[in-house]
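Example S7 (structure tokens).
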């Protein structure tokens, strides 16, 4: 048995999550929403005892390090309950080291330490921010700021020996002007799509609008401080005018506001990134926080700032802070170096073969083929894809972040636009303007997309090359871009073989790849959930190696 310390990282915020490591080996990490089936489910007292402990694989040896992070005063008020829960639920080593760290510091450790860089500038831009309190680290020379302040952005210089904070943006609830980038995008989203976690809808709708139609100004940017001018504050109060889908609300108004907000956000983000580069003079940038999921802005970071490399992890939002907590425990409390690198996102616990077989016991409405040879399974999947079928792919450990990368995916032929419309309307049951992503062979990607380098985590929206865009309309957004996943020879072998086979069959090294979940649901986690979702959705097949499952009564084809 390894004598490397066992670390548990717990994120108590929205998008609650937990991560278990032994030394630099990540054992598993998972979001709470995947277990409760409630999107963006926040942390609560009792999660470890009632949810994580009974349903996740734990080591036989005691836990040596526990690190937690919080992002709100309400969470911090639960500290006594959290303490009681951990003491009663977990096997802690007698000398177990404990720490609570700030939300932004957890973000820093989640993005820099698993990055490929020896040193880097680090930019954390969060949504609604986290409170300034005694849990928050301060930078040199800064005094404590009293009042109801929240930190909405923070900036660092990091290397493998230390992390130095060089600036923050703080937001006072009573000051509507200096709101920060994340809060601006949150308010923009609430004006068009109220609810939780709808920022991606704004990004998808924006290319359908005219960013100049409403004549809104740029955001104000002074160094790292981002403010919202009066015209923006006024227009975002006109929610009856811009609420998508409500009677009397014009689609053009919604799209124009989304376009103006996306453009203002991108331009301000680039200004802040240029300021950070001027402060650090480093070539590499690590970017995390909820706004780092904005793949259109991320592409411009690569193209229009002095940074030569940008690392954005698969889970840059609050969920990733559980991994940051574990890595803080490894490096700062256990005093060990970190050799973990975030090279793939299949971090969830993998189901055992018997779990898959148990999920298939109720099979009267299904046809099940057993295809243990990978080439044979790929051949059958390719036959289905080439004949306009849409299928689910469930294999191995689930993705930790919000992007499906070939383990909890829905796959389809990208060559027909109607397939995108059919998946949005019939399978995902969501808005017509939402784009669907491509997976592409890494060595062929530059022939099809104008990209700066590999993009294994779907974090950049690269232009589709005009000469091939007509061949892949199902994954080409209205602005001519696609949020692509490049698949290298070292990546998932099944997805890799499917792309190679589809290329040989059609001359197109691209597959449509979207997340395996229904309307308002998290990505499926267990074999039982995958089978249930397959039955509910009009999918034509489900690949669950070594099984290929079809329906005795086949759904209609996309048309």
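Recovered sequence:
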């Amino acid at each position: 048995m390894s004598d490397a310390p066992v670390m548990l990282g717990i994120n108590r915020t929205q998008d609650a999550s937990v991560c278990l490591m032994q030394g630099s080996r990540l054992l598993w990490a998972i979001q709470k929403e995947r277990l409760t089936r409630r999107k963006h489910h926040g942390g609560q007292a009792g999660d470890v005892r009632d949810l994580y402990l009974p349903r996740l694989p734990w080591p036989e040896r005691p836990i040596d390090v526990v690190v937690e992070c919080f992002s709100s005063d309400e969470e911090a008020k639960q500290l006594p309950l959290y303490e009681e829960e951990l003491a009663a639920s977990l096997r802690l080593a007698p000398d177990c080291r404990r720490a609570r760290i700030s939300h932004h510091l957890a973000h820093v450790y989640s993005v820099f330490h698993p990055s490929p860089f020896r040193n880097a500038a680090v930019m954390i831009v969060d949504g609604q921010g986290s409170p300034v309190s005694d849990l928050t680290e301060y930078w040199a020379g800064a005094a404590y700021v009293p009042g109801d302040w929240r930190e909405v952005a923070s900036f660092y210089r990091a290397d493998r020996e230390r992390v130095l904070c060089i600036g923050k943006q703080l937001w006072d609830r009573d000051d509507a002007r200096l709101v920060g980038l994340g809060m601006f995008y949150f308010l923009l989203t609430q004006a068009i799509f109220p609810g939780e976690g709808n920022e991606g809808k704004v990004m998808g709708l924006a290319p359908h609008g005219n960013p100049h139609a409403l004549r809104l100004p740029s955001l104000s940017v002074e160094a790292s401080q981002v403010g919202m001018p009066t015209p923006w504050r006024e227009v975002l109060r006109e929610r009856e005018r811009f609420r998508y889908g409500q009677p009397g609300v014009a689609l053009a108004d919604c799209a124009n506001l989304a376009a103006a907000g996306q453009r203002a956000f991108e331009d301000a983000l680039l200004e802040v990134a240029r300021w950070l580069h001027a402060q650090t003079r480093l070539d590499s940038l690590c970017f995390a926080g909820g706004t780092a999921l904005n793949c259109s802005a991320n592409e411009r970071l690569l193209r229009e700032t002095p940074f030569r490399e940008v690392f954005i992890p698969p889970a840059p939002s609050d969920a990733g802070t559980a991994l940051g907590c574990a890595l803080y425990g490894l490096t700062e409390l256990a005093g060990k170096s970190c050799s973990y690198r975030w090279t793939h996102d299949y971090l969830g616990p993998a189901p055992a073969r018997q779990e898959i077989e148990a999920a298939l016991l109720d099979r009267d409405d299904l046809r099940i083929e057993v295809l243990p040879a990978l080439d044979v399974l790929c051949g059958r999947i390719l036959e289905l894809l080439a004949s306009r079928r849409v299928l689910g792919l469930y294999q191995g450990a689930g993705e930790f972040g919000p992007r499906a990368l070939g383990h909890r995916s829905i796959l389809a032929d990208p060559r027909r636009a109607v397939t995108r419309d059919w998946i949005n309307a019939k399978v995902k049951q969501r808005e017509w303007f939402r784009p669907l992503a491509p997976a592409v062979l890494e060595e062929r990607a530059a022939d099809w997309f104008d990209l700066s380098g590999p993009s294994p985590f779907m974090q950049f929206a690269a232009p589709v090359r005009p000469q091939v865009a007509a061949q892949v309309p199902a994954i080409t957004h209205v602005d001519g871009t696609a949020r692509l996943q490049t698949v290298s020879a070292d990546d998932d072998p099944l997805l890799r073989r499917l792309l190679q086979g589809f290329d040989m069959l059609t001359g197109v090294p691209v597959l449509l790849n979207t997340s395996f979940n229904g309307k308002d649901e998290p990505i499926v986690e267990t074999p039982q959930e995958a089978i249930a979702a397959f039955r509910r959705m009009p999918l034509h097949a489900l690949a669950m190696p070594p099984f290929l499952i079809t329906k005795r009564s086949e759904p209609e084809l996309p048309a």
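Notes on this example. The CA atoms of residues 40 and 197 lie 7 Å apart.
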